[in-house]
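Morning. Coffee machine broken again, so started the prediction first thing and wrote up yesterday's gels while waiting. Chain of 440 residues, entered below exactly as on the submission form.
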Amino acid sequence: MSVSQAKVKSVLSGDTLILVSVNNPNQERLLSLAFVSAPRFQRDREEPFAFHSRDFLRKLTVGKVIQFHVLYSIPTGTKKDYGTVILQGGEQLPEAAVAEGWAKVRDDSRRKDLSDESESLLSSLELQENKAKTDGRGIWAGQGGIIETSHDLPDPKTFLETYSSKSLDAIVERVLTGDRMVLRLALSPSKHLQTIITVAGIRAPRRANTAEGKEQAAEPLANESHQFVESRLLQRSVKVSIIGLTPQNQLICVVKHPNGSIADFLLKAGLAKCADFHSTLLGAEMKTLRQAEQYAKDNRLGLHKGHVESKVPGGNEIDATVARIVRPDTLTLRLKSGSEKTVQLSSIRGPKPKDEKQGPFDAEAKEFLRKKLIGKHVRATTDGVKPPSEGYEEREVVTIMANNKNVALMLVESGYASVVRHRKDDSTSHIFYSPVPSNI
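Came back before lunch.
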C-alpha cells in the first residue's frame, strides 16, 4: 500500500480535506474520504448537520500532519482522489467519521470494482454505520442539526452595540491579508454570522489585487504576512472581541487563538505595523502591541529590516512643581534646581483659542488645570521632542502624573482636549488613551 504524508490545510465538508505539502505550503491537493458522503454546505442554506459534520473533521485534522492512501480516483473535469487517512494518534478516516455518525456510506459504493482492501474497508464502514444508526449518533439523531447562517450584516452599528461587551467563539474561514479575514461568528448554538473583519491594532501589507480594472502590485512582505496568519489561524477556533467599525462598516476585532493574540505575534515577526487609528478603541492594550512592534524594530525583522532608531530623547523622569498653565496642553514646570522649562502634554491637543467652537473652552480648560495642578508636585516622563514650528521653540513632549493620575487623560475625560492621531511611523506615538467624549 502506497502511503503519502501531508498537512491538512482546511476542511471543505465532513468528507473532504485540502492537503498541502509538508515542505511546500503552496502545493495543494484535494482528498475526499473513500466510500462516504457528508452533509453539504450551501451559501443560501446548509444541509442539516453540515456544520457539525465538518466541525468534527476540522477539529480532528486541521493543522496536523497526516498519512493518506488514495484508493481510487474519479475524473470529473479535474481528477478527484478518494482515500483513507491515518492520524498521528492512530485514528483512521473515514472509519472515525462514520462511527460517530458524521458521515454515511455512499449508496453507489458497491457498484465499483473493489479490491480486497477496499472490500474489507467498505464492510467495516457498513457495520459502523449500522451501529451509529442504532445509537442515534450524529446525522442519525433524527432531529436538529440546523444552523441559521447569515452572510450579511445589515446594521453594523446595532450589531456592535449588541455584541461589543461579549467574547464570541469564532472560526477563521478565510485569511484575506495579514489583518483581514472572514470569520464565522457563533452568535448562539443555532445562529452564525459569516463576515469580513479587520484585526484591531495593526496594518499588514496589502496583497496584489485588481481595483477599478487596474492591477495593484503587492506591498513588500504581503504574501509572507498572509502565509504567517493563514498557517496559524485558517479554520482554527478563536475568541473574538468586537471593538469598533471601519469606515466601510466592517467589524474591527481583537482575535485571540489559545496561544495568544495574532496581532501580537504578527508584530513581533515584523509582518505588520501598529495602526495608530485603532488606539482609542484598544486603550491600554495598544501598549502591548507597541512593545511587540518595538521588538521587531530592535531585531530588524521583516518590515523593519532597515530600521534605524531615531535619536529622540525619551524615558527621562523628573520631579517638578507646576508653575504656570500656558495652555491647556502646555505647562511650565519648576525643577528642583529652581530653573523652569515649558513642556507639552503627549498625544493630546487643547482647545484652539481662535476657533469659534473651541475658543470658549480655552479659558475653562486652563482654569480646570490651574485648580488641580498649580503649586502641586508632579512626575514628568519625557516621550520625545516636538521640533520648532509656528513661532514656537523646540519643546519636550511629556506624560505628567499627578497623584498617580495621567493629566492628559484627565483633560480628555473631562472634554477639554482631543487625542492626536500621530503620523505613520512617528516614534513618539506610543501614548494612547481610551475613547471618551469630548466637548471640543
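The CA atoms of residues 63 and 232 lie 8 Å apart. Going to sketch it on the whiteboard this afternoon.
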